[in-house]
């Protein structure tokens, strides 16, 4: 796949899902209304949706914005299927394309690099949500956050209030990861 930011983000999502134990599935997350299981179901569903729009794959069988309480199978298996679908779909996307379809109604198409960054944003931020909820190291590095920022600046405002909370005020001296989380309405200091 020719989209490094997406590859990195999907890998982060998979690694975090692999680290989730069954007894952590009901834990609270930075997404206040959702448990770890529901965030993973949402993230997996979003990747299936992106895959169905950009090339191949089926839409999820559930509403990613109203995820069930528990996945069928393990968290790792759930995310693995979504990552595989996303990877296969994005392999068919021309990196020079000016109009890649998206599953985001307010933003129906994007330039390929921005579409990949928007898709990656979803995977990376939900990987962070689950990591901090389950005591794993944050996969959201400053380098990854900087690569995600163009996608975030393109899609977050049209989705603000639906998919993203109001931004939190930036704090002096914070790096790109903390700044991105605040822009998305997440507290970089959130702890379980």
Automatic annotation (TrEMBL):
Quote any Pfam family the record assigns: MDMPI_N
What positions does the domain Mycothiol-dependent maleylpyruvate isomerase metal-binding occupy? 9-131
Q: Which domain of life is it from?
A: Bacteria
Q: Which GO terms describe its molecular function?
A: metal ion binding
Q: Which InterPro entries match?
A: CHP03086, DinB/YfiT-like, Maleyloyr_isom, MDMPI_metal-binding
Return the protein name: TIGR03086 family protein
């Amino acid at each position: 796949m020719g989209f490094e930011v997406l590859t990195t983000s999907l890998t982060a999502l998979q690694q975090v899902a692999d680290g989730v134990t069954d007894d952590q599935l009901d834990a609270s997350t930075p997404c206040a209304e959702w448990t770890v299981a529901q965030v993973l179901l949402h993230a997996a569903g979003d990747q299936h949706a992106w895959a169905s729009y950009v090339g191949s794959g089926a839409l999820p069988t559930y509403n990613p914005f109203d995820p069930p309480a528990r996945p069928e199978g393990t968290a790792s298996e759930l995310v693995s299927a979504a990552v595989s679908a996303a990877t296969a779909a994005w392999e068919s996307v021309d990196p020079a394309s000016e109009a890649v379809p998206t599953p985001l109604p307010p933003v129906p198409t994007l330039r390929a690099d921005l579409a990949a960054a928007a898709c990656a944003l979803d995977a990376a931020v939900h990987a962070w949500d689950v990591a901090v909820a389950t005591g794993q190291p944050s996969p959201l590095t400053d380098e990854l956050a900087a690569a995600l920022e163009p996608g975030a600046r393109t899609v977050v405002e049209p989705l603000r209030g639906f998919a993203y909370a109001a931004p939190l005020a930036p704090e002096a001296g914070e790096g790109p990861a903390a700044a991105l989380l605040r822009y998305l309405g997440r507290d970089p200091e959130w702890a379980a």
